[in-house]
Write a structure and sequence with these properties.
Blueprint lengths: L3 H28 L4 H22 L4 H25 L1
Helix pairs in contact: 1-2, 1-3, 2-3
Protein name: YtzC family protein
Pfam families: DUF2524 (PF10732)
């Protein structure tokens, strides 16, 4: 069973990954290809967060699974936006 503290801490890390990715998305929109490394790093961070959420969900209770599911949707939405803009 995932503890409340571990889920809360992980959700905070996901929020930080989203903020970093949004910053890189904004920078990428302004600078085109000049921040390629950071942009790719942000995308990888989002992918890692999605994978970690999937793993953490296995040991979460119903309420925690709902929180993790909503966070996963946010992560994937931003990830998709970044991929579409990049291509």
């Amino acid at each position: 069973m995932a503890t409340r503290q571990s889920v809360d801490e992980y959700l905070q890390r996901c929020t930080e990954a989203i903020e970093y990715a949004r910053d890189q998305y904004k920078t990428g929109s302004q600078q085109e290809h000049y921040n390629q490394t950071e942009y790719t790093k942000a995308l990888q961070g989002l992918e890692n967060a999605v994978n970690d959420i999937n793993h953490l969900s296995l040991s979460a209770n119903d309420q925690q699974q709902d929180q993790l599911y909503r966070m996963r949707l946010q992560l994937q939405q931003l990830q998709n936006e970044m991929i579409i803009r990049h291509h």
